[in-house]
Amino acid sequence: MASLNRSPYQGKTRKLVLAFDIGTTFSGASYSVLDPGQVPEIKGVTRHVVFPSQDKSCGEVPTVVYYDDQGNICAMGAETTYDGLEIDAAEGKWNKAEWFKLHLRSNLTSGPQAIETLPPLPPNKQVVDIISDFLKYLYSCSKNFIQESHPSGADLWKSVEKDIDFVLSHPNGWDGKEQSQMRQAAVKAGLIPDAADGQKRISFVSEGEASLHFAIQAGMFSKIKVGEGVVVVDAGGGTIDVSAYRQDPNSGNQIFEEIAASQCLLHGSVFVNMEAKTFLDGHLKESQFHEDLDHIVRCFDQSTKLRFKSNQDPQYIKFGSARDTDKEHNIQIGQLKLEGSDVALFFYPSVTSIIQAVLGQRSTARNKIVHVIFVGGFSSSDWLFNSVSEVLTRTDPTLKIFRPEEHRDKAVSYGAISFYLDHFVRARISKVTYGSLCSTWYNKKDLDHFKRASTKYVCISGETRIPDHFSVVLPKNTQVSEDTEFRSRFRQVSYKTSDFKLFSASVWCYRGAIELPKWKDVDPTKFVELCTISVDLSHLHLKPKLNPSGKTYYEVDYEIVLLFGLTELKAQVAWKEKGVEKRSPANIIYDRSTS
């Protein structure tokens, strides 16, 4: 993909950037070789020489892995498409891992109850293990492709392989916990060492933001006026990511800002299959072909779903031979006939969720939404695109809705490289309210405090306090630039100086409807601990004090500085020494348990 006003690479040595997009149903890889003084270009990993068993030029491979009972890989990616694989899998009693990415889902992601019916993970395999295996596979494929498609490819690879930067994309709804698990997978796959220098070589980008970068590179903003709001709908296999942006009219450059909180919907194309399976399960219950249900759904996915355009015309699923007939259940010569209106219902949850999300972005955006851009493999569905477009334009005839003609399925991996190179987005919108749960001084004249008098306690310093007060650091729907700092003040007290060696403070987020939440007990299920900030305070000036009981205790005041405007949360600890602010990095620890 050609550059768009991109500057030559300013580094002194050659460098390689690889982007991996592990999708729910299909995955892809893109890369850029950065040569000093040269304008970087984005290229996709394609052709059959890369992905074993792939029989045509293609930038995608199935996100599928087969394991034997010992956990060894039997086939993965494009290798899972060869003729006879199902026979080998049955005879070898292989365990299939598919749609495994959705097992890494976050509470930020909303969707239908059907998510509970996801295919289970293979025995003794965690989602991090499978993602690690797939990252290793994509890395190997990328290595082979670069070596075989570039002049002196082996020498090129040798010159960059020790210091490759990686960009990993993920759904809009994922946060630090999922990023942490993806880092684990990258280390386990051998992409980076488990050290600080290695961690710096991994960066993350949301699929919505990567799709925006792709749209810019594809020239889709050439006819969009600066300052006009644009909603990008990345319709994929598992999730549909909806994001809104505008080009900053005051920047003088190609600088974009997010103008509404992004959304992540569990209504991708696999959920159309789930709806179809539920319908066909009932329809074929008394048929001899009910035992072929999974095969029929696969045939629907590979043909009928893609070509569906009209709910007025009958649709056919060709799944068997000319001898397969069951007229009572609308099966003749190996084809199952369905009413177009029934097939339309399979798409209904996806269509309605996109419409609601776009209209929601339109109502909350800081600027008027003028354009809607569709990317992602699911956007190739004419029924999906036309159904959404019809309702949106009827709601607002001024909306301009379109989709690129090519590379829709490669939007995320191409856009992830552009994110690394071009960095178009400089401000983002907070999706939830961030803050800290802490105690506060008890004030009997405050009604909120008086109602919670039963929880009051006397702390080490002798003060009477009440717990579970939520101190807001960043409200929901706030536009945050990348360099905006948010501070939270803390005072740590203890009888022992050793307690200051390792201190932890938690960052919480509120995901409910209260605009400015103050107390956890008002809406307790909507408060979620996001992460823990671990800091060493032993080097700070510890103030010895006496409490009312005459006991000596120690006190230290400090601030945790948070940067929310990046694609990853960053944290520092700040304190004062003789009136001068000092800082040090803080470790961010996420719960690493898998979903």
UniProtKB/TrEMBL annotation:
SUPFAM superfamilies according to UniProt: Actin-like ATPase domain
Record InterPro entries: ATPase_NBD
PANTHER family (alphabetical): ALPHA KINASE/ELONGATION FACTOR 2 KINASE, HEAT SHOCK 70 KDA PROTEIN 12A
Descriptive protein name: Heat shock 70 kDa protein 12A
